[in-house]
Amino acid sequence: MSGKIFLVAAESSGDALGADLARVLKQRDPTLELAGVGGALMEAQGIKSQVDISGLAVLGFVDGLLAYKRVKIAVEAAVAAILAAKPDVVVLIDSWGFTLRVALGVRAAAPEIKLVKYVGPQVWATRPGRAKTLAATVDHLICIHEFEVPFYTPYNLACTVCGHPALGRFKQGDGAAFRTKHGLAPNEKLLLVLPGSRPSEIRRIGPTLWRGAELLKRDRPDLRLVVVAASAVRDAVVAQAPASALIVDESEKEAAFAAATASLAASGTVTTEVALQGAPLVIGYKLGWITWALARAFLLKSKYTTLMNVAADAEVAPEIIQTRFTVANLAKAAASLLDDPAKREAQVRAQNEALKKMGRGGRPASEIAADAVLGVMRG
Asked: Is the pTM of the predicted complex or chain greater than 0.70?
């Protein structure tokens, strides 16, 4: 078997998914030709990006308007690269707005190219009408959860459920070794601060998370603050973090998560990754006010923003969102986890039950996704 597959990722989370998928595809069939648009992780798998994706990780109505020209140029460049490559299949990874525009451009110019969406829009949380739009645009969807499939059934879009990618990617971190390496005592309390992987998140969420962390440290002088800086936003994270914070690279993230006593984290994939390492979380998030007003009025359907909480249908990890996203609220929620071992243990147990409902223990998402992509190509 041989063929050409083109992967499209527009931000760091998609780059990680694309890299995992590329690795498994090459294992399945070394004769495959892989090309694409992505970041450093995909490049490490031999896929040199044909479009610069920096600046494409935008979130919210206002940020989207400000980035419109940049996104439009990148979409046109991605479509041109795909048409020049003439692949059998294009895999459009996460990043709903960007990948939809790429899909529409490819479908209009070359309808014979098969299109696969890897991670669909969160139709269960906002704008279920996107299911119809996606079904009219792509040939196959690889989604994370079983509860997504019924949204697409009325539109006859074939779906493969892969489970949460963080579950299949899980590697147990060595928390004790992390503490030894960085001179942290075994009983020293360690608070993770994880402000996100998008520049807009660092700007909007980071300052409040850090002020909450510093308030906790004021009352607990021995508390150590640790941040794992995503490579795409490392400079912004370093500039924002207090001088006392320990800043580590993504290569140490599993160990740092396993070493943590508790975490203050922006909502996103990282919350699942931290929970898998057995650390309790407090989750904070804030959108721009125009985006929030539009979402509240027209879009939001889910009670929770965090997938663990959605899976559990309960707030197993506290969510401090939007109007409640204050320094005092963050500090209060995290203080009880730092100071009460029984509460920490109870939350970790609840997080573990939620992770089971998300598919913990199944095949890696990248393997299921690779099989689906190859199936579409052969079909």
From this structure: no
